[in-house]
């Protein structure tokens, strides 16, 4: 149930023919979020997401951004793994 601040970054490239797209860059997406457990079974995530996408003409970008919210319910609560609780099988 420990709170956590995280981020996720993604870069997409395209390798199309040069008559379709002259540039290989397609999309860059980044999200920053806060997540925590309310109870052992219920977790939530709240944050923001942003995306920059190059149009096929190679000269203009589209920019998207907005909030993201998620609530997850687990029937069987998952125990958080730590270095002490993970069995590496090296006995």
Describe this structure in words.
The chain has strands spanning 4-13, 25-37, 42-54, 61-73. The protein has 91 residues and is mostly beta strands. Strands 1-2-3-4 form a 4-stranded antiparallel beta sheet, with no helix packed on it. Strand 2 and strand 3 (42-54) form a beta hairpin. The model has no long low-confidence stretch (mean pLDDT 81).
Give a brief rundown of this model.
The chain is 0% helix and 54% strand. It is mainly β and 91 residues long.
The low-pLDDT segments are: none
How many beta strands in the DSSP annotation?
Answer: 4
Strand line-up across the major sheet:
1-2-3-4
Shape summary: elongated
Distance between the termini: 30 Å
Helix content: under 10%
Structural class: mainly beta
| Total DSSP helices | 0
Order of helical and strand elements: EEEE
Question: What descriptors fit this protein?
Answer:
mainly beta, 4 strands
SSE topology:
Blueprint (H helix, E strand, L loop, with lengths): L3 E10 L11 E13 L4 E13 L6 E13 L18
Antiparallel strand pairs: 1-2, 2-3, 3-4
């Amino acid at each position: 149930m420990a709170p956590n601040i995280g981020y996720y970054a993604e870069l997409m490239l395209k390798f199309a023919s040069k008559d379709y797209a002259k540039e290989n860059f397609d999309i860059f997406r980044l999200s920053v979020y806060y997540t925590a457990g309310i109870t052992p079974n219920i977790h939530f995530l709240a944050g923001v997401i942003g995306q920059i996408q190059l149009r096929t003409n190679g000269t203009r970008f589209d920019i998207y951004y907005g909030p993201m919210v998620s609530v997850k319910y687990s029937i069987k609560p998952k125990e958080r793994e730590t270095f002490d609780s993970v069995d590496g099988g090296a006995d």
